[in-house]
Amino acid sequence: MPLDLDFVRRQFPAFSEPALRDRAFFENAGGSYACQPVIDRLTRFYRERKVQPYGPYAASAAGGEEMDEARARLAAMMGIKTHELSFGPSTTQNTYVLAQAFRRHLKPGEAIVVTDQDHEANSGPWRRLGEEGVEIREWKIDPETGHLDPARLVPLLADGKVRLVCFPHCSNVVAEINPVAEIVALAHAAGAVTCVDGVSYAPHGIPNVAALGADIYLFSAYKVYGPHQGIMAIREDLGMRLPNQGHYFNGDVLYKRFTPAGPDHAQIAASAGIADYFDALHDHHFAPEPDAAKRAGAVHDLMRAQEIAACQPLLDYLGARNDVRLIGPRNAAGRAPTVAVALDRAAEPVSAALADHGINCWAGDFYAVRPLTAMGVDLDEGVLRLSMVHYTSSDEVARLIAALDRVL
After folding, report:
1. Mean pLDDT over residues 310-317, rounded?
2. Which residues contact 227 (CB under 8 A, 6 or more apart)?
3. 297: which of 57, 103, 250, 330 is 20 to 30 A away, CA to CA?
4. 197 φ, ψ (degrees, to nearest 5)
5. Are 218 and 194 in contact (CB under 8 A)?
6. Half-sphere exposure of 340 (CA within 13 A, CB side)
7. Do 368 and 397 have their domain in common?
8. What domain count does the chain have?
């Protein structure tokens, strides 16, 4: 059964807002629209439960229960234990806190592998550990295609000194979907653990982290139709080995060990609305399924099929032009539908011109300075980024192509 796009778009109030209704939204990689269940839960929390949670009175107890519900349901979708899921103020902050834990955990002579395909949030905090004596090894992309070849990782692991490999599930500009399970297996065989940045992948279907084998997996709820929270999955045995970064008296609670800041109660509770939305999609399209990870997997495949069909015409159009450089694969099945192009001019004025044609998108470097530099893109000109998710329609892509014809 194909994705029922009418049903999907009814779950997002933005599509009925007068100021947005006639605009085609292609800046989803910067943050998706919020779904109705998230908005409802956030509003209810602020209206009825905006008190310190987990207390003995009704409003407080209800707030704590809803926060626990969010953690339990999202963890179940990802195939992990409930206490292996942590919330934080952002993925950038979660990664920074993790880096501080590894700074104390690593021994002299041990090394970390980072890539030049990453958003800076999963690169900079690890690279700074080089100032503390940790050896930093860079796994480089192909400068023409942006491809991150697992074969290039193998020699970096050969001497057995690497303890951590950090890489993206997919880049926010290259967008090629990396073979996470294969890379994790290579790292584990060499005695290293893995930290996977899933920010640019999770909006296209929350992955089964247990099946991927990743030791740490991070993504941002606000790009997965939710509130502005960072979500981190960390394997229990690793998380309990790393030095506690939270209050000392919370050190025996895994999901508190890497959250030194006070949690945002309302946004954590509202994150349960992400699970509500995914379950609503499943119930609308499939027979009942009691296993949350299987439900999430079915919805993942449904979303990806819609995105592949919608994105391919744009890739074909851009690939046929001789005045743009399409970054990443030309086959929609091998990439996220985040499409970056380098132009023969500065990109930001082009995004502004597209806005005049009813296309909402943006341009710049998107904190992907390292991959763009490695591929020879002029950072002053930047790239035009056209990003979609499962609620993007083929009609909107056709409108985008027509607008690009006029603007370019």
Report:
1. 98
2. 34, 38, 42, 221, 264, 266, 267, 270, 271
3. 330
4. -85, 110
5. no
6. 28
7. yes
8. 2
Is the same domain home to 241 and 318? no
CA distances for 349 relative to 24, 27, 346, angstroms: 18, 15, 7
Residue 331 located in a structural domain: yes
Amino acid at 40: D
State the number of CA atoms in the 13 A half-sphere of 184 facing the CB.
19
**Sequence letter at residue 335:** R
Q: Is 172 in the same domain as 266?
A: yes
- Predicted TM-score (pTM) of this structure: 0.97
**406: Cβ–Cβ under 8 A, 6 or more apart, which residues?**
357
As a whole number of angstroms, the distance between CA 34 and CA 200 comes to 16
> Could you tell me the two tokens for 337?
């539908």
Residue tagged 């806190």 (tokens): 97
353 shares a domain with 318: yes
Do both 243 and 373 map to the same domain?
Answer: no
Q: How far apart are CA 127 and CA 288, in angstroms?
A: 46
Instruction: Collect all residues with Cβ–Cβ distance below 8 Å to 374 and sequence separation of at least 6.
Output: 116, 140, 141, 143, 146
Helix ranges (H only) for 79-149 are 91-105, 124-127
Contact present, 213 and 238 (Cβ < 8 Å): no
Place of tokens 């045995």: 237
Closest of 133, 114, 336, 354 to residue 223, by C-alpha: 336
In this structure, are 148 and 229 located in the same domain? yes
Residue 228 is predicted with a pLDDT of 96
Domain stop point among 275, 300, 326: 275
- Shared domain check, 59 and 184: yes
Residue 343: which domain range? Answer: 5-33+292-407
What is the pLDDT at residue 86? 97
* Backbone CA torsion sign across 333, 338, 344, 350: positive
Q: Note whether residue 282 is domain-resident.
A: no
Is 287 inside any structural domain? no
Q: List, in sequence order, every residue forming a beta bridge with 265; answer none if it has no partner.
A: none
Q: What is the per-residue pLDDT across 322-373, written as a single tens digit (0 to 9) for each?
A: 999 999 999 999 999 999 999 999 999 999 999 999 999 999 999 999 999 9
Measured CA to CA in angstroms, residue 258 lies from 53, 101, 111, 248 at distances of 20, 8, 22, 11
Question: Measured between alpha carbons, how far is 87 from 264 in angstroms, rounded to an integer?
Answer: 9
